[in-house]
Every structure is written in structure tokens, then in C-alpha cells.
Design goal:
Layout lengths: L5 H13 L19 H17 L6 H21 L2
Helix pairs in contact: 1-2
Length: about 80
């Protein structure tokens, strides 16, 4: 699921990090730190930087719904592992 939503995830974080009202101190983990594959992680950061530059951060309702589920799964997994 993570690979399929990589672009949407990059858009989400590009939007968050570009939002002046967003505080980095509110993060529990760095965006992308949950991505195990170095190839996918590199793609994620590249996409995120590109989306930040272009301002292309809009997500469809479907993408938002799928990301919400992915973030929930990631949070649960990382909490179980103590990461």
C-alpha cells in the first residue's frame, strides 16, 4: 500500500511542510522515516521537494481516505515496534 500511495503521501507532506501554520515540533517522526526501501525513500523525498516547489499538493477525497488508513497502519506498526 505504501508504494501505491507514495505520490499522494509526498503531496500530503509537501503541503504540510509548506503550511506556515504547521509546526515541525508537532511531528513524532520525520516524514518518510517509516519507508524502509531506500529506493522508495529517495523517490518520496524527490517527489515531496518537487511538489513543494510547484505547489501541487491537492489530494482527492479518495487519496485522503487511503492516506488516513495508511497513516493509521504505519502508526500502529511503529508503536508496536517501539520506533
Amino acid at each position: 500500500m505504501q508504494e501505491e500511495l507514495l505520490e499522494a503521501k509526498a503531496k500530503f507532506w509537501a503541503g504540510k511542510l509548506s503550511d506556515p501554520s504547521f509546526s515541525l515540533s508537532s511531528l513524532r517522526r520525520n516524514p518518510g522515516s517509516e519507508i524502509k526501501s531506500s529506493f522508495l525513500k529517495q523517490q518520496f523525498y524527490s517527489l515531496m521537494e518537487n511538489f513543494k516547489k510547484t505547489g501541487e499538493t491537492s489530494l482527492s477525497d479518495k487519496e485522503k481516505e487511503l492516506l488516513k488508513e495508511l497513516f493509521k497502519q504505519e502508526r500502529s506498526y511503529m508503536d508496536e515496534c517501539g520506533i
